[in-house]
Write a structure and sequence with these properties.
Elements lengths: L17 H14 L3 E8 L2 E8 L12 E6 L7 H12 L7 E5 L30 H11 L6 E8 L6 E5 L8 H8 L10 E2 L2 E2 L4 E2 L13 H8 L4 E7 L4 H20 L1
Parallel strand pairs: 3-4, 3-5, 5-10, 6-9
Antiparallel strand pairs: 1-2, 2-4, 6-10, 7-8
Helix pairs in contact: 1-2, 2-6, 4-6
The structure holds zinc ion.
The site of zinc ion has 3 residues, from loops.
């Protein structure tokens, strides 16, 4: 499969009507019994957060808790489309609990740009919490329990294929390689030895870093510092057809969930 060759100096592919995607998310989530929270950001802006507890009849042992977010960069439309598909398919294992943020940057998508409407890259604001979207999101996260696994869903306009970041400081058993294997059936994998200036192997970047030493935090650093010991960031290659990118993200998320339920 070949790159489309559209992305020159940024994402130039198809865009989405984020308001309509989020409206569909909301109606599907209501239909399937998710708890819905509206997080006020400004007078005319809110974020949505969906929660799905494990079935109450599942045995008393602790049930895995998985957090998924997307739409923090407004030029990465496959993430919200992948989440919409997963909500519609509704194949969530009953023995697990889920937290889902379907769009963290609603004002970026109409502009097809990474930043929000005010020009802030929200995914660099999770240490200092300047942007109201990030403050609303973190205030909500602070009210949630810790997660066994967090998944941040992104795209990369430059990449040669799908890749992922894994933060796993305790070196827990990793499903990373199985994610790559599953995604490789539906989307090329970026086999570069360096991706985004970090060493990568078979599409996996395992940064050896301490968020405390970094001046600007993406969402994943906040999560790794405060909410989880195991975090994945998924990156679909946005110079490929939309259905390929959505399939890559859906497959990666499903694989992470299925590997956690085992
Ligand atoms: Zn991104």
């Amino acid at each position: 499969m070949q790159r489309l060759g559209k992305n020159k100096d940024g994402y130039k592919g198809e865009t989405i009507d984020i308001a309509s995607v989020v409206r569909e998310d909301l109606s599907v989530a209501q239909r399937f019994g998710w708890q819905i929270e509206r997080l006020p950001v400004a007078t005319d802006l809110e974020l949505l957060a969906f929660t799905r507890p494990a079935a109450s009849n599942s045995e008393s042992r602790a049930t895995p808790r998985i957090y998924i977010s997307t739409g923090i960069h407004g030029d990465e439309p496959a993430g919200p489309l992948a989440i919409r598909q997963l909500l519609q398919e509704s194949q969530w294992p009953v023995g697990m609990s889920f937290w889902l943020c379907p769009c963290l940057n609603p004002t970026g998508f109409p502009l097809n740009r990474r930043e929000n409407a005010k020009g802030v890259d929200l995914n660099r604001d999770y240490r200092h919490l300047h942007a109201p979207e990030v403050r609303a999101h973190v205030a909500w996260l602070e009210r949630q329990p810790g997660f066994d696994l967090t998944i941040c869903v992104h795209e990369d306009w430059e990449s040669q294929g799908f890749y992922l970041y894994e933060l796993n400081p305790d070196r827990l058993p990793s499903p990373g390689e199985r994610v790559i294997e599953a995604v490789s059936k539906v989307c090329p994998i970026d086999q570069s030895a360096m991706i985004e200036d970090r060493p990568a192997k078979n599409g996996i970047i395992r940064p050896d870093l301490n968020p405390a030493n970094r001046p600007l935090w993406p969402e994943a650093f906040y999560l790794a510092q405060h909410k989880t010991r195991h975090s994945f960031t998924l990156e679909a290659p946005s110079d490929f057809p939309m259905e390929t990118r959505v399939a890559a993200l859906v497959t990666a998320i499903r694989t992470l969930i299925n590997e956690t339920v085992k």
